Fold this protein.
Amino acid sequence: MSDKFDFVSATDKPALLAFSTPEWLEAARAALTELGYKVHTAATHSDFLIRFSQVHYQVVILEELFAANNPSENLTLQALQTMPMNQRRQATVILFGNEFQTFAPLQAFQQSVHAVINSSELFLLKQLVEKAVADNTLFLSTFREAQTRVYSNATDKE
């Protein structure tokens, strides 16, 4: 099992990619590497789920047709959509495909992801990932502050 995963240190920013289109995979890998992420790729649905369960990825980019002929066959997306929030809260999940309007909040909500990106915007992927991560961080900041306060209060009482 150790040969399947790179060691992820506390200072690494891990990212997971799940693409069937090789050109999109390479473009996404280049964009995330340029942003300083340590990039892992999943080849199959089971590979994705194993990796996702073992590493707390900060960014996950998933192709709408990953290992599928149509979106309803994308088992990885279905697994993410039904996964409890406490198992995926640490990751900013981005869905990439031909049918989306980039950063359309209702489309993202319908797909249970943080952001959707149209494949025609591939050349802007680096900036779009930065924006999606920043938006998600801002959205969760109140939750994280409250969580920190609750933890601090609990440890103070001990």
Observations:
- The mean pLDDT is 91.
- The radius of gyration is 16 Å.
- Strands lie at 14-18, 38-41, 59-63, 92-97, 115-118.
